[in-house]
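Field: COMPLEX_INPUT
Field: COMPONENT_COUNT = two
Field: RESIDUE_TOTAL = 646
Field: MODE = joint
Values follow.
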Amino acid sequence: MARIRFRDVRHAYPPPKGQEPVYALNEINQVWEDGGAYALLGPSGCGKTTLLNIISGLLTPSEGEILFDGKEVTDLPTSARQIAQVFQFPVVYDTMSVFDNLAFPLRNRGMDEKLVQQRVEQIAEMLDLTDNLKKRASGLTADGKQKISLGRGLVRSDVNAILFDEPLTVIDPHLKWQLRSKLKELHQQVGVTMIYVTHDQVEALTFAEKVVVMYEGIVVQVGTPVELFNHPRHTFVGYFIGSPGMNVLPCSIDGGQPVFGKNLLNIESRIKGQLQGKLEVGIRPEFVEFSDDGIPVKIEKVEDLGRYQVLTLTHESEIIKMVMAEDQTVPSENPRIQFDPHHTKIYCDDWVVEEAVNE
Amino acid sequence: MNKTQNNKAWWLVVPVLVLVAFNAFIPLMTVVNYAFQETFGDNVFFWEGTTWFEQVLRSPRFHASLIRQLVFTGMILAIEVPLGIGVALTMPRKGPWVSVCLVLMALPLLIPWNVVGAMWNIFALPEIGLLGYTLNSIGIDYNFTNQPISAWLTTVVMDVWHWTSLIVLLCYAGLSSISDDYYQAAHIDGASRWAIFRYIQLPKMKRVLTIAILLRFMDSFMIYTEPFVLTGGGPGNTTTFLSIDLVKIALGQFDLGPAAAMSLIYFLMVLLICWAFYTIMMRNEEQ
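Field: COMPLEX_OUTPUT
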């Protein structure tokens, strides 16, 4: 077990001839506390897998260093790092039985056969593989094979961290829930650091205590699911998390107050000083409501999603999404909306303006 | 909907039937014809039953060439298969060197059999050949034209040179089909280099390796041209393998009956060994 720390880590894959290298990871400074359950969330190609492979030592970063409990491991090979990793697509050793597959990481490390037996049976029990232990691994379905891959990750008890790289992509939806709660349960039992990569926000938010959101090679925000929802530090976090995502609308500042269209918006505190760059106001659809005076809008579409309705509104050419409880009704004429001042955020060049302290 | 019965499509099979008849069935039946009868020309035949078969199977000469053949095939398989796998494992997986290696590997396969025999004959000649001359001048007594051991070694090395590439190329194809995930998982699992080979690479190469071994078995068991050009079966009869012996009996001595019987025995042996080998390999697969 260890506290894993990234210090100024950057990584670029070898570029095609004659081109500048593009950094898949750009300046990562990040600490993974020992025993934490982290989700690494971000769109495809944002550097999630690269980051995992750097932790496990499959990749050596171009710049920066990785520390386990303060000890530098940047150049250590995978085998010396005590990291377990589960990949997106199942990897099984075809010629071995399920039992031998699960025992493989332990036997490679010279563990006593009795302990191996014990440990494998325990893990097989947890993953419902007990009945298949004697079967050949190649005969199993994709689900079964991925369970073996998971099992090989979980079977080692001495690991510093277990990394999951979108491990449930190939698994049936109902099993997904089951396995995810198994993983969470396991995390509570053994308390080993788990880092779970996914591009599915539901998966991330249900699994993790802390969610690390990545975007174009940088970590844009680390926080609990609630923090990410209420205080997105970056517009990307705003619209990637939440369904529908945050409304991000162009604005200007007048006297410390944001102006959207011709409408002055109320916020908790006034903005001090001059802001340079692209200014935007962010408001979650949950915090938009109808009011008598406010921004005049046109209602384009109403979608009933059962417990709530999603409205698509337009003000001039800007689209605003709004979430409304099921029992509320849409005003029949001249609808106007207002934004909840406590949840209205100002973004400058995509980053939240936090220094907007009170007068 | 009513289905209409129309058997005209069967005519499309005719060209294949004709081809198979002319290139396999009729020649084979001719051999069968000679194997059970005696002829003195003029298309006059006398029934001999299994006489020729008994004669061949009891003949010490047949036993001797069969043993030589088995030893030769065993030797070249024992050398070419591990060597081929080894070379395939060391070939680069990516980059500009891949095509260079592939072309270099394919070169020996492109050379006609008799040219290979002639090349090695000249190469190994003790007085003028590069190999023969060098060996002799560093003090090794080497002359494949009159020393059985030298002749054998030269034949084996020639075959290894000519055909290891085939195994390399097939194994390389098998290796390239393994995705990086497997190697990464193996590193995570702490697998040794040997374990990676044993549990990832070898199983993935199994199918192509089965084909490679079958091909090499058949080709080497029927080898004729290269040793014929290199040593002519000599010195004495020491490199007279089954095919060379068969041609000597059929065309040299014109004993068509025994030669035909020997051909059939030879053919059945190749068939039987291939079938047994393939069945065993595939049975393992199913388990």
